[in-house]
Amino acid sequence: MLAILLLLASHPSDLSEAEFQKLHASIVDSKTAAWRTIPWRTSLLDAQKDAAEQKKPLFIWAMDGHPLGCT
Predict the structure, then answer these.
(1) Domain residues of the chain, as ranges?
(2) How much helix, strand and coil, in percent to the nearest 5, is found in the chain?
(3) Residue 9, H or E segment
(4) How far apart are CA 67 and CA 71, in angstroms?
(5) Is residue 65 pLDDT above 90, yes or no?
């Protein structure tokens, strides 16, 4: 994917509309992507309750810093 983005950035005038559409379609997330099927929770308490009821582990994704530049 990085190579595609570098290609787009380095040669924008050499890319036809059809080529752009093909590349764009190949990097856009599918609505059926595996990560979209995960029942994400935004409330830690709700997630903890669900995990306990289902006897499943709890995965917490946490970050610190600016959302566009993880630090």
Answers:
(1) 2-54
(2) 55, 0, 45
(3) helix 2-10
(4) 9
(5) no
